[in-house]
Each structure stands twice: as structure tokens, then as C-alpha cells.
Design goal:
The chain is elongated, with a radius of gyration of 22 Å. The protein is built from 18 helices and 12 strands. Strand 3, helix 3 and strand 4 form a beta-alpha-beta unit. The relative contact order is 0.11. It folds into 2 domains: 124 residues, Response regulator (Rossmann fold, 3-Layer(aba) Sandwich); 248 residues, Rossmann fold, CATH 3.40.50.300. It starts with 6 loop residues before the first strand and ends with a helix.
Length: 393
């Protein structure tokens, strides 16, 4: 293959559109495979390993979301650039496809065809090295990791753990750009932990034009927090503003974070909904935080059973027991038996140290460097990062 040649698979049930786009890409010097149906295109993708898949979501023989999920689930096609090229704009369809792993959603027009050609040209390694996006630093192989924190019950310290683990990674990995997206609804929680006082937040970002909601915009809008080292997109400041967030923008926002930063942590708190579930299923690692009390463990078991039904692989789950409220409760082995998952780490009871650090808006490892639990969090941080890197490939 020549230096600037890429392999492109085009899937479109409209023969005129298929022929036109295939010819256009061939004229650009790319190697093109064409398919008129989703199943035919999927087989071609597994066989030919294209660099890019351009598809019209109006597939007659299979749902486009199913097609995307199959691509992302197979090692041979999981990293392919996928572009939906549709004849009609549909915000609900766009949100669904982006959540399933689509890289770009375009409506057919002369202008979007130019954008498509630029996207395809932009993934060529030589072009990426010589023409980086303005304001976006060059990614290393670990770029784009996504880690989600969630729990089945409030009061387990999920947000505190998310913020402190993100801080540990930012401090220990100087070459890794870490970001945190606070998706705790209806009121964000990490802003109050870190002392963030800015006005830019989830509501601001979600109200931005979807066409311009990208990695460059995020890097220009959020800066590393003092003492914490990571970039924070704070959650909604109040329930009223949270209700205004358009759910269809959330997959776009998550994709923009993955474009812009090496590691993104998403704090979901105890939120499990149609908005949060696609983020969970997309994540490289899911940190499920439970507690030692019977009610929390029981709810965690229900949560895990639900996520299994949705197709979540246990190899991507990092189960964490946080003794946030005292020494009483179930032991690790009893909780594991009930939940049906191995608990990878247990955070010892910290007394009031975590609360004190939160009240002073300081990382616990910085406030109490000799605290046993703080040191344990440092180890957990590296384990989570290693796990995400392995899953990411």
C-alpha cells in the first residue's frame, strides 16, 4: 500500500450513493470496498480489516447500532474509524450511534463530503504527525482511556474516590493528561470536593453546538485544577439547570473528552439511566464502589446483575469496597459471594480524614500522606490505570 493509501469500506443500500462515494474515494487514492447491506459489510470488515468504515445507518438487514457494536466487540475491527453518513438528520439516532462507538455522524451534503475526506486523510499516521490539531497535544498509546465510577447506593464515597484516584494518576504520570467529567445528576459533587469555583460546567458544555463540541473546544475551556492536576468539567450546579441538559449531547461530549485527554474519569455517582448506561458500556474500566453494609451489598448485586444483562464483561469491572462509615459490616469474602464478583481492593476506614480533606478541598494523599488508606488509594489508582490500558489494547 502506498504511503497515503487507506482502506475504506463503504456501506450504503442506495446504489447511486454507494457508487458515487466509492468513486470519490478511489479518486482520492484510497482502496475501496463496497457493500449494500449491513451483514455483507460486517463480513467484509472482518475479512479485509479496513482503516475506515463509512456507512448509511438506514441498513435494511440489521440495525446500525448492532452493526457498530459488532465492530467494536471484535479485536480485528475495534479500532476502525467509523463514520455514519446519513440522508436525514436525527438527533436521537445520532446519540444512539455515538454511544455505540461511532466516531462521526454526518448528514449527506457537499460540505460534509469535504469533511469526510478530511477526516479520512487525517487518520494517516504521517499526516497526524505533521498536522496535529491546534491546541491538542500529541497522544501516546494510552490516549483516550475511559474509566467510569458508579455505585448502587449513595454515601459510599464514590465521588471522593473518583477525584482522589484521578489526582493520584495526574500526579504520578506527568506525561498523562487526566480529565474528570462530573455526571452526577441532578447536582454535581466533585466541584465541591475540589473547590472549583468556575462557571463552566456540564450544562454549559451540553448547550454548546454539537458540531463544535470537540476535543479542541474542551481543552480551551477547562484547565488543570490547582492541587489536583486534572481538568474538571463540573456537574450541574442545581437541579433546575440539570433538567435543561439535552441527553443527545452526552455521547458527543464523552467522545470529545476521549479525543482531548489521555485518561477521562466519569463520575456517575448512583446514576444508572438511559443516559449513563451507554457511557458504562463504552468504558475501558468500570469502578463499582460498594460498602460493607448489607443494604449496599444487596443493591450492588442487583446493579451487577443488570449490567451483565446489558452485556458488560466482568473483565472490565474493578470492584472496590470502601469502608466509608465505620468498621462494622460484611467482610470481603461475604460481599464477594453475594455480589458474584471479586473485590479487587478494600479502602480501610479513614475516620474523619477524608471528610477533613474534602472540606479543605485537598487530595487526601496530599493532606495525610502517611495515612494507610491514602497510600492504598495510590496503589488502587495504578491498578485501575493498568487495567484500563490492558482492556484498551
Amino acid at each position: 500500500m502506498e504511503n497515503d493509501q487507506l482502506s475504506v469500506l463503504v456501506i450504503d443500500s442506495d446504489q447511486r450513493s454507494l457508487s458515487f462515494l466509492s468513486a470519490l474515494l478511489v479518486n482520492q487514492g484510497h482502496v475501496v470496498q463496497a457493500a449494500s447491506q449491513g451483514k455483507e459489510g460486517y463480513i467484509s470488515a472482518l475479512r479485509d480489516h479496513p482503516d475506515v468504515v463509512v456507512f448509511d445507518p438506514a441498513m435494511q438487514d440489521m440495525p446500525a447500532v448492532e452493526f457498530l457494536r459488532k465492530l467494536r466487540a471484535d479485536r480485528r475491527t475495534s479500532r476502525v474509524l467509523s463514520v455514519a453518513l446519513t440522508g436525514t438528520a436525527d438527533s436521537a439516532q445520532m446519540a444512539e450511534l455515538l454511544a455505540a462507538g461511532c466516531n462521526e455522524y454526518l448528514v449527506k451534503s457537499h460540505e460534509t463530503l469535504e469533511k469526510l475526506l478530511a477526516l479520512i486523510a487525517g487518520i494517516h499516521p504521517r499526516l497526524q504527525e505533521t498536522q496535529p490539531m491546534a491546541g491538542v497535544k500529541k497522544k501516546n498509546r494510552q490516549g483516550g482511556l475511559l474509566a467510569v465510577f458508579l455505585s448502587a447506593k449513595g454515601g459510599t464515597g464514590t465521588s471522593s474516590l473518583c477525584a482522589n484516584i484521578a489526582q493520584n494518576i495526574a500526579a504520578a504520570q506527568a506525561n498523562v493528561d487526566v480529565a474528570v467529567l462530573d455526571m452526577v445528576l441532578p447536582i454535581g459533587s466533585i466541584g465541591s470536593i475540589t473547590g472549583y469555583g468556575g462557571e463552566f460546567n456540564l450544562v454549559s458544555a451540553a448547550s454548546h453546538s454539537i458540531q463544535d463540541l470537540n476535543g479542541q473546544y474542551l481543552r480551551q475551556s477547562i484547565s488543570p485544577l490547582p492541587n489536583w492536576g486534572f481538568r474538571l468539567l463540573a456537574g450541574a450546579p442545581d437541579p433546575e439547570s440539570a433538567y435543561s441538559v439535552d441527553a443527545s449531547t452526552i455521547p458527543v461530549l464523552v467522545r470529545a473528552f476521549r479525543q482531548a485527554f489521555d485518561v477521562t474519569f466519569v463520575d456517575l455517582g448512583r446514576s444508572l439511566s438511559r443516559i449513563s448506561l451507554p457511557i458504562i458500556l463504552e468504558a475501558d474500566v468500570i469502578a463499582i464502589v460498594t460498602g460493607p453494609d448489607l443494604s449496599t451489598v444487596t443493591l450492588t448485586q442487583i446493579l451487577w446483575n443488570h449490567l451483565q444483562l446489558k452485556g458488560l464483561d466482568s473483565q472490565r469491572v474493578y470492584m472496590l469496597m470502601n469502608r466509608a462509615v465505620g468498621l462494622e459490616g460484611l467482610g470481603k469474602s461475604d460481599a464477594e459471594r453475594m455480589i458474584g464478583l471479586q473485590i479487587q481492593a478494600t479502602v480501610p476506614y479513614m475516620g474523619g480524614n477524608m471528610t477533613l480533606a474534602n472540606n479543605q478541598h485537598l487530595p487526601v494523599l496530599q493532606k495525610m500522606p502517611n495515612d494507610t488508606a491514602a497510600k492504598m488509594l495510590d496503589q488502587i489508582s495504578m491498578q485501575l490505570l493498568d487495567m484500563a490500558r490492558k482492556v484498551h489494547g
